[in-house]
């Protein structure tokens, strides 16, 4: 009886993982962005929001993507007698395939930022 309960429990977990994976379709995210390199010389860190999408394409393959907006605060630049503060906003779009192998979830996304 104990083995039967364990077998039913394991089977239920395996089946629920597949059912839950098919139900995920998207959501919202709040993000923190820290600029690096030359971009760091122009703006400070920023905050943004993203809408995340996940479309089940087949049993294993999903197509995912996100559309986001970020706002970066400016750095004060002293040029002669003028004080200049630059700030900027940025839109991002990313998309790519995801593969769900049960306990292993692999994916890659490419992005465009403007």
Count of runs of 4 or more consecutive helical residues: 1
Q: Which regions have little confidence, pLDDT < 50, spanning 5+ residues? A: none
- Provide the residue-averaged pLDDT: 78
Shape: elongated
The rounded Rg comes to 22 Å
Describe the fold and architecture.
Helix content is 19%, strand content 58%. It is of the alpha+beta class and 114 residues long. Strands 1, 2, 3, 6, 7 and 8 form a six-stranded antiparallel beta sheet that branches. Strands 4-5 form a two-stranded antiparallel sheet. It starts with a helix and ends with a strand.
Describe this structure in a few short sentences:
With 114 residues, the protein is α+β, with helices and mostly antiparallel strands.
List the helices and strands and how they pair.
Blueprint: H1 2-23, E1 26-33, E2 43-56, E3 61-74, E4 76-79, E5 82-85, E6 88-101, E7 104-107, E8 110-113
List keywords for this structure.
114 residues; alpha+beta; two-stranded antiparallel sheet; 1 helix; 8 strands; 19% helix; 58% strand; elongated
